[in-house]
Amino acid sequence: MQNDLSKLPQIQALLEQPHIAEVVQRYSHSEATTALRQIIAALRAALLAGQSARFPDFTSVEFAATLSAQIDATRAPVFQPVINATGILIHTNLGRARMASQAISAMQGIGSAPSNLELDLATGKRGSRHSHVETLICALTGAEAAVVVNNCAAAVLLSLMATAGGRNVVASRGELIEIGGSFRLPDVIAQSGATLREVGTTNKTRVEDYASAIDADTAVLLKSHTSNFRIVGFTASPDRRDLAKLAAEHDVILMEDLGSGVLIDLAPYGLPDEPVVADILKAGVDLVTFSGDKLLGGPQAGIIAGRADIVAQLKAHPLMRALRVDKLSLAALEATLRLYRPPFDPVKTVPVLQMLAAPLAQVETRARSLAGSLAAFDGVQVAVHESAAYVGGGSLPEQALPSFAVSLRLPALSANDLATALRRYQTPIIVRIERDHVMLDMRTVWDGELPALTAAIEQISTG
């Protein structure tokens, strides 16, 4: 082994080889050096582990090509588009909601040129970035005023810091939720500088529980929409209108965090439990926080809508600058919000709503089209099955949406190996596994993505 280790070439000597010198000129000295060190380190590790290592011809064109390929791999984008065949419409790990083409175009336009981000074109003086979407949000929700920050957790944090810092926040024990990434609502309340007063029990909270907790230090009654879990059976929670009346009587703020948040009624599409922002404000809630990148179908953003005097406090708070939304997100959000107004129909133009509202027959047709293409490949076992898709993104985890999926098996690969191969394809394909079959759910796949799916499975099955 010691003799073999002595055969490992010096990096500097390799860099002086003619074919490798060409690689250095084509890329850079540092990239070539790093790649060579990695190759030599792998050979050394194999020898030290007692394995037989096959030395390449370091002077050959073939080795230079291998070196180039290794450098190209490091230059390839890490952040890239994937095909979502999981059946989860708003997949947090896959970037949540797809955005509409109008939102993408708006981002491109604003990103490729100077813009009036903080310039009032009418007066020529400094303007506010909040003004670009505030009017739209108010028109769609009935709010007096609105402001946007970079995500919904930020919206809750800012709202509590500005209204309840150093005072009490009253919340039901049954609504003290934990959101993605182990972030818990009580922790957010604590970070805001407010003190949490828990009321009621896990399964039952009444208006009287809130009323008994209100004192001179109370600033906010906080409701949270439990979109990511459900308590069934012996349960009770107060009506928003009763809480709004209680808050008004005691001159405290009623705030509600929706987590997701929708602007239209989704009951016709199988989601009857997702409250509409306008209805919540109409019920008397003073401030509502919701997300831009979930069921609304836009970019990541935290939207705050409600009373003008409270929103003015938020805009003036020092934390606002740290949480403010960027120009690309604003452009995408404005374009998305416009799709909720005539002449547009959001169910036909906002991708997440398109997937949600797609007729089951359309999903089945897509599944049978893909299955028909795949059946032509030798060794591919394919079938179409009824399936269940889900909204995802922390929204309605138990609310299944009828769907169709294509199941796949390859004799030479386990389901896990096939899923891995699809995930490592040039356009990664993300699937789910059921009963040792790879499942491609067609509710989250576009027609335009079928050729890429077909090409990937053909290459894997013949490779």
Outline the structure in words:
- Pfam families: SelA (PF03841).
- Keywords: Cytoplasm, Protein biosynthesis, Pyridoxal phosphate, Selenium, Transferase.
- Its main location: cytoplasm.
- Pathway: Aminoacyl-tRNA biosynthesis; selenocysteinyl-tRNA(Sec) biosynthesis; selenocysteinyl-tRNA(Sec) from L-seryl-tRNA(Sec) (bacterial route): step 1/1.
- Its EC number is 2.9.1.1.
- This protein folds into 3 domains: 2-75, no CATH class; 83-91 and 354-462, Aspartate Aminotransferase, domain 1 (Alpha-Beta Complex); 101-346, Type I PLP-dependent aspartate aminotransferase-like (Major domain) (Aspartate Aminotransferase, domain 2), CATH 3.40.640.10.
- α6 (101-111) runs antiparallel to α15 (327-338) and α7 packs parallel to α15.
- It is α/β, with parallel strands linked by helices and 463 residues long.
- 41% of the residues lie in helices and 18% in strands.
- The chain has a 7-stranded mixed beta sheet, sandwiched between helices.
- The two termini are 35 Å apart.
- It has helices at residues 2-6, 11-15, 18-26, 29-48, 61-75, 101-111, 131-141, 152-164, 185-191, 207-213, 240-249, 277-282, 308-316, 320-323, 327-338, 346-349, 351-357, 360-374, 415-423, 450-462; strands spanning 83-84, 88-90, 145-149, 168-172, 178-179, 183-184, 195-199, 218-224, 253-257, 287-291, 302-306, 381-392, 395-409, 429-430, 432-434, 437-441.
- It contains 20 helices and 16 strands.
- The mean pLDDT is 92.
